[in-house]
Amino acid sequence: MAVKTYDFKQISASFGTVILSGFAEDDAITLTPEANIYDAKKGCDGQTTRSRSNNDDYKATIRFMATSDAKSQMQELTLRNAALSGLTYPFRLISNSTNEFYFSPEAWVEKLPDADFGREVGEREYTVYLPDCLISAAEALSSIFGFLG
Known about the structure:
The chain is of the alpha+beta class. The chain is built from two helices and ten strands, in the order E-E-E-E-E-E-H-E-E-E-E-H.
């Protein structure tokens, strides 16, 4: 059996022009689907029918150290979006370690993070809404588009 290696440095992510970095200690980025792929209903005669939700929206929770340059850039993009309304930015995450790719062409920050200040450096958590998020194996995209390594 082959030995597998996970390396966080094999993950790259961006939001608009911001290359995401300066992450918090534990989970840096969490991608959560907004809906089930299928929902099932059982009829009164016992037949089960499933319905495809067709909701491909995700939420990305991104955790930065409070001192992160990328956090400051995310804050600037978010404030610009709030002032101008209607701005969206592409979100992209590629993991060569897990062979995963996530892409949303028109993402936005839902709200500004809580800010805490104390003896030790704090963290800032952004939630980015990813409508119509494309999910694929990074390996397949590499062969199609000729990038990723």
